[in-house]
Amino acid sequence: MSDLSETVDLSNCDREPIHVPGSIQPAGFLLALTSDWMVARVSANVAQFLGLAPDAVLGRPLMDLIPAQTVHDLRNRTATLRGPNAVERLARCMLVEGADPFDVAIHVSGRQLVLEAEPSVGDMGDISGTVRSMISRLDQCEDMTTFFREGVRQVRALLGYDRVMVYRFSADGSGEVVAETCRAGIGQFMGLRYPATDIPAQARELYKRNILRIISNVRAETVPVVPQLDERRQPLDLSLSVLRSVSPIHLEYLRNMGVDASLSISIIVGGKLWGLFACHHYAPRWPDVSRRSVAELFAQMFSMRLESREGLAVVEYERRARDVSDQLLSAVATDETLLRDPDWLADILTSVIDADGVGVWINGKHAASGITPDAENFRRIVRALNGTASGRVYATDRIGSIVEGAEAFVSLAAGMLAIPISRAPRDYVILFRRELVRSVRWGGDPHKPVEYGPNGPRLSPRESFAEWKELVQGRSKPFHESELRVAETLRATLIEVVLRLADEASVERQRASARQELLIAELNHRVRNILGVIRGLIRQSRPDDPAAAEFIQVVDGRVHALARAHNQITDDHWGPAPLQALVDAEARAFVDEHERVISDGEPILLNPQAYSTMALVLHELVTNSTKYGSLSTTGKVRFSWEREGDGDLLMRWVESGGPEVHEPTRRGFGSTIIDRSVPYDLGGRSDIQYKPEGVEATFRIPARHVSEARSFAGPTIKFPRSSRGHPTAPPPKMLTGHDALLVEDSLIIALDAEDILSRLGAASITPMATVDAALDSIEAHRPTVAMLDINLGDRNSFPIADRLTELGIPFLFASGYGEQAQLPSEHRERPIIQKPYTLENIARALDRLLGSQGPE
Length: 856
Hints:
Blueprint: E1 8-9, E2 23-24, E3 29-33, H1 44-50, H2 54-57, H3 62-65, H4 68-79, E4 88-93, E5 102-109, E6 112-119, H5 127-139, H6 144-159, E7 163-169, E8 175-182, E9 193-194, H7 201-209, E10 212-215, E11 223-226, H8 248-257, E12 261-269, E13 272-281, H9 289-334, H10 342-349, E14 357-362, E15 365-370, H11 375-386, E16 394-396, E17 415-420, E18 428-433, E19 438-443, E20 452-453, E21 456-457, E22 467-472, H12 481-540, H13 546-570, E23 577-578, H14 579-590, E24 597-600, E25 604-606, H15 608-627, E26 636-643, E27 649-656, H16 669-682, E28 685-691, E29 694-701, E30 706-708, E31 739-743, H17 747-759, E32 764-768, H18 771-780, E33 785-789, E34 791-792, E35 795-796, H19 798-807, E36 811-815, E37 832-834, H20 839-850
Parallel strand pairs: 1-11, 24-26, 31-32, 31-33, 33-36, 36-37
Antiparallel strand pairs: 2-11, 3-6, 4-5, 5-6, 7-8, 7-13, 8-9, 10-12, 12-13, 14-15, 14-18, 16-17, 17-18, 19-22, 20-21, 23-25, 25-30, 26-27, 27-29, 28-29, 34-35
């Protein structure tokens, strides 16, 4: 091996080659040439390296010295270069006829072709057979530890270095010696860790491009490359050059370790730099090209086997995770409470991800199994995750990095893996790992302050490589990439479970809501029917005694008030109803001139209990006023309301313009309702004063019974009234000349409805209680208008409606369900009268139904 101490001077080339302002190792020579590279001429140093007399060859074209076969081979190898990192080699290449052979490497750098030549000193013969034998030994290793150990044994046997190590990089850039073989008496580095600064990020990137890097002698003087810049004033990139010298900082680093020569071979797994075969020798050493080629090929095969082994382990690990996911899905499908069972979750999750405890946070509720922080610290962790995790799996081996004051529970939970299973608000399943207090062996103090040296700050290698132990606290065993991938799989599974449960819960809520609506509608239907029966009984009772008749009229008014209130609060599924509608209904029932009862207040809703109570109170106020107060003459009533600061509703009833008022000497049932209903039923207050100019009453309804609402308005039909507030005559005889069919299965209600239809002018009324009887009646004597109760015992009146539709006879439905009654699509637009029947609601419905129609 020649040791060139002079500059490799190529300045005499016709086409000036490209070089870097650096140097190469004195183990060969390097030419950087343009595409027409064979016009280069021989310089003195090239002649010296080729073993030729400079006087005989100086200035001659390089092509004149190289045999034709060699030129042919070099051109062919140049043509096979593919990709930016491709390097081609020729072993035992005859550069000069009759001279010693060279081993030549060729690669492209930018627009130039770089040739590197070393004296050929050996030939290993069958390289593929050698590599195959080495790999077969690897394949017999049962575990990774043995695999690594066999790898370093094979490399050391091949290259003969004093020490060969497998150096594995960690996620933070630091490295650890995981396998080592060395000659006796030089100590061992096995298990030592080295900080990331020992091999900077830019150096690791270079290791990915140039798989094999060699330093033959750390103390040898390097040979500068000239000229430093090409004709475009650009340096040459020698990243792929095997002869390229390394930085003086790294050379000093090796000298501080006592190493004289080194060689590294990159281990690339999944396109990433997994680690290195790191070789150290305590004397100068330069293995020949053939052995380096075998080592490089072996390292590539080692990387492939390593990737395969790790891949198989991950596949098996993730297969078990999928089994767990399937198990989780099937288990929760039969018992949804398991998702909130931390013990069960801990058992199933820790079977694939090692953890000391599992915490669950769902809908603001906390549950835990195993060793976890307490509830308050768990909440702090969740708050920190909400600002950090961004809806993805989040892992850390030091919770203190995101939670302030985590030292308080670090002995219980130092690391965590958080699996979000919702978004806003976020729910989590969190796996915790306890603090792992461990001693880490460093190859020198990684925390040593930066020292200034001849290369400047932060560019001076450390000098001490004595083993330095560090006690690591506040951290857990870190979570690996495969565990994070499994956690993502589990996250998808858990979210699927949560969504499935949410869908099932939504369906169940819809079913429950439908059942509740059906129950409420049925209850309302029955209540309205009962009220209708009661009103029918009252109306059909016509005693001759005037006092009894007046009593019946009073009772009928109160029942009617309750019925009106019930209709309002059941229109919205037993929900709040507008106060204005209540005032309008009571005023309309007793006073022809609507403006005589003046209401004033913002739109307000009363809940059902308050609405029913105030219906009776207002009914008694209006009744008393029409008997004795301002509404008995030409006076007026002002009824106003407003919300107080505390949300209570304050209502005022003020009469004016009526006869002089005197406080009653006897307190009847009506006065008791006015005085005591609001305090007793609603927890409010009431006050009534009998002033000479008119009655004034004040009522305070607690805020819990009140809510804001839009104003209420609806169409009205006015009826003439008596002094008692009941209609004295119907509106225009809208049923004059009509023959009416009335289908109603309750006799009392039928009698009441028949009376109302008669008052509306019907020429004849045919009541029927069953579907068959009604159909027979239609065929025997066709009506001109009909009113059908939808529910007729265990049947409905839709067959009657179908027949009336065929005959073109107008009709309307009636039901205790009111607007909630379910009609078939062909009758969906028909009007529905809400029971109990009143003259007003039947008249309004018939007015909309008939319009300007006359009897057919």
